[in-house]
Description:
Helix 10 (318-325) crosses helix 12 (345-357). The protein has 14 helices and 20 strands. It is globular. The protein has 2 domains: 2-28 and 267-416, LarA, C-terminal domain (2-enoyl-CoA Hydratase, Chain A, domain 1), CATH 3.90.226.30; 36-261, Rossmann fold (3-Layer(aba) Sandwich). The protein has helices spanning 36-43, 47-51, 70-83, 108-112, 116-119, 186-194, 210-219, 247-262, 285-296, 318-325, 330-339, 345-357, 368-373, 382-395; strands spanning 2-8, 11-16, 22-25, 57-62, 91-96, 123-125, 134-139, 145-149, 157-163, 166-167, 171-172, 226-233, 239-245, 263-266, 270-276, 299-308, 359-363, 377-378, 403-406, 413-416. By secondary structure, it is an alpha/beta fold.
Amino acid sequence: MVIELPYTKGQHITLTLADEHLIGIYEPNDLGREAKETLFEGALTALDDFLEGCTSLLVIINDATRPTPTSAMLSALMPRFEKAGITDEMITLLVATGAHRAVAERELAQLLGPWAERLKGRLVSHDATDEESLVEVGTTRNGTPITLNTLLFKSDRIIATGSVEPHYFAGFTGGRKAFLPGIAGYRTIEANHKLAIADEACALALEGNPVHEDMMDALLHIKAPIYALMTVLNKEQEVVSATGGDLIESFEEAVEVAQQVFCVQIPSRTDVVISVAKFPMEINLYQAQKAIDNGALAVKDGGTLILVASCREGIGGEEFARLLSSSSTPDDALEKINDTYKLGYHKAAKMAAVSKRITVMALTDLDDKTIRSLFLEPIDDLNRAVDEALDRARKRGVADPKVIILPDGCVTVPKERHDKS
């Protein structure tokens, strides 16, 4: 069969695969479609009362590395703001960049859609390293210092927007993640992400996950009322669910839907898995690594994972790359991480742990030397790489090696059918 896989925006890669090798192509589940306007209307039923008397409104939005439908959310929110007498001058859009870079001018249309020209002057990109824009408010139960953007404490109403999907160490994105790491200080993010090395910090896990606990603890220090608007998207990145109101309740409701959409049942782990980082998550290796972590869940010990991701803006997080490239083996990298931690090392730890168990090949725009330094095998032809991976399985004694394909590997979480968790 001939299969087209996404590579970057507007580009695809063609894979030709014998039918007998394919176990299945697994994508997020389709729950049906309802007009997003109707979904937003239902999620915003209590917003008018929430906005009554508002004189300064902070709206937290995701950056351009996320598929969150921010422009559609603004189209649902702006008429409500106008109805409440909230002028543009009373609104601040705060981009929850976490430790990422600021929003680029070229990304405004993607991020804000038809509202770009009107609202670009109201947009502020959070800067985790700008101490003057941060305030320390306490510590979490895990000892993480909580520093947050001062704009949180200069507004009398806060609206948090986001999308909810599985996250490889926070359990799920969305909800509380808008605040930590979204608009937290660098040392807060660093301390929080260090907890990602724990076994409990993994996809779908919330209870007992120390990363999630930190995020929840940060919310206790925010005094202004918060209204949340959370979405769940399907494989076409269309809105299939919208929840609104209380931040925690709306997040929990969205998590239930997200599990139905993004958790896919596979018959068993297999010898070869192709995991694709889909636009916009293929922006860099730092983001695309999520496709490695999820894809690895479907690979047998000793098998092969093939990452497909353009990494059009390079590596993305230099610290994790420096750590891996300075290590002779995955075990060496893990020892270094145990000895000291810098932001990004959690990414290195996850990649090193995967590389110890399976072979990871990568089809990207990065140069071969860089790829090899990260314990990945660079490839430039997907078909040839699959043939090599099948041959590798045969040499290990597998008579009939099989393939699983995840065309949206950053958010698709494969689970074996006997796994009841």
